[in-house]
Automatic annotation (TrEMBL):
It comes from the Bacteria. This is Cyclic nucleotide-binding domain-containing protein. The lineage of its organism: Bacteria, Pseudomonadati, Bacteroidota, Cytophagia, Cytophagales. Residues 29-114 form the Cyclic nucleotide-binding domain. Signal peptide: none annotated. It comes from Dyadobacter helix.
Amino acid sequence: MEKIRAYFEKIIEMTDSDWEQFSSKLVRQEFPKNHVFLAAGQIENYLSFIEEGIVRFYIPKEENDLTFAFAFDNNFVSGYESFLTQKPSLYNVETLTRSTLWRLTYNDLQKVYRETENGNTIGRYASEELFLRKSKREISLLNDTAEQRYQNLFKEQPHLIKHIPLKYIASFIGVTPQALSRIRKRIS
């Protein structure tokens, strides 16, 4: 839980009172590897902070799922569109490794917004991080080659990427597993 406070204190000074109010609403949950904690059709009720683990976002398909995002340690994770609208999610969110999340419900977040001095700033910062990550991904898909997307992922999380199956990485960068194999041979 202290990782969350340290994360926020990089951008905002939190009073002990605000931290107590916020942290009292957090629930720590551990999930096993390959656990779907949000399935398409369910409503996302949590904004979560990854203390430890890797999370994958994907659209389930009959043959090959379409992986479109990953989240790593010390980042927020949520089926955010569903969380904001309180409508069913269009995709799944699953753990790729054993993961520990600190979770805040939608209703508790609304209370934090109303009842704390810095609640809205905390919420804004978390949502801005999620937006920037999504925007970066979209721009990368429009501007970068698959090889550049692979190299960027490897640069950003070199110690964690070895835990992600290659078929998910291939889907994420928009190529087949065979094409990823050729990319990896070229750059090694």
